[in-house]
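Notebook, bench 3.
Goal today: get a predicted structure for Zinc-dependent metalloprotease family protein from Fictibacillus terranigra so we can plan the truncation constructs. The sequence was checked against the plasmid map this morning, with no discrepancies at the termini. Length recorded as 228 residues. Pasting the sequence as submitted so the record is complete.
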Amino acid sequence: MPIYTVNIYGIFTSGVASGSTVAQRRARLEDDVRRANEIWRLNDENRINFVIARRFIINRTVNATNMTSDEALMNGSAPTTIINQVRNMTNNAIGIYVIYLSGNGFSNDADSVGGAEPISFVDENNYQFIGQVALTDAALNSDLFAHEVGHVLFARYITNPQNNEIIYNDDDPTGPYTEIDPNTGDLIVVEPYHSRFTDNIMYPITFGTNRNITAAQLELAGTSNIAL
Ligand SMILES: [Zn+2]
């Protein structure tokens, strides 16, 4: 398997943890990217290289506790508006745009969120994604960035064979993660975008010890058009 490169654009909003000085901002972004590089490899020949392309400061406070993680990446949200401003400055460079938000988590208890966004679209064989990741203060010194880049790189457009509609799909090859109600035995949670393996970085919870990936995950991530 080849080595892929994924460019990372870091965006610091006002008042975030480890965001007051240049040294703090550099350290926080470097820590997140270092963890992603540690995790997204099977050996030195099979890996994704996450490379810090540029860092931006935006003089605006965005408090994550005022929104759910889903709302954070919706079109027109404060985080995506800022990401679009930064994309203007990079001439729409292909990569993952990670925005740091203040507040100790989103209102739905998630600490981070990530996904892909099309910047051009013709059909399922002709489009271009960029990645969007939002990290709250609760994501400091964690593997959450490494988890969210998985959601970004697994994303693609596919044709739904049932009705020929083109749909966004970010299924994890080691999914689905499921939960069963212990009382009723009913399947209450099915998340195809999360791993069912507790030792995997794409398990819904990052413990700091679940840092494994599989060859299938690495291969799928490498086929993202964000991976150069
Ligand atoms: Zn997740």
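The chain has five helices and ten strands. The pocket of zinc ion is lined by residues 147, 151, 194, 204 (CB under 6 Å).
Flagging this for group meeting.
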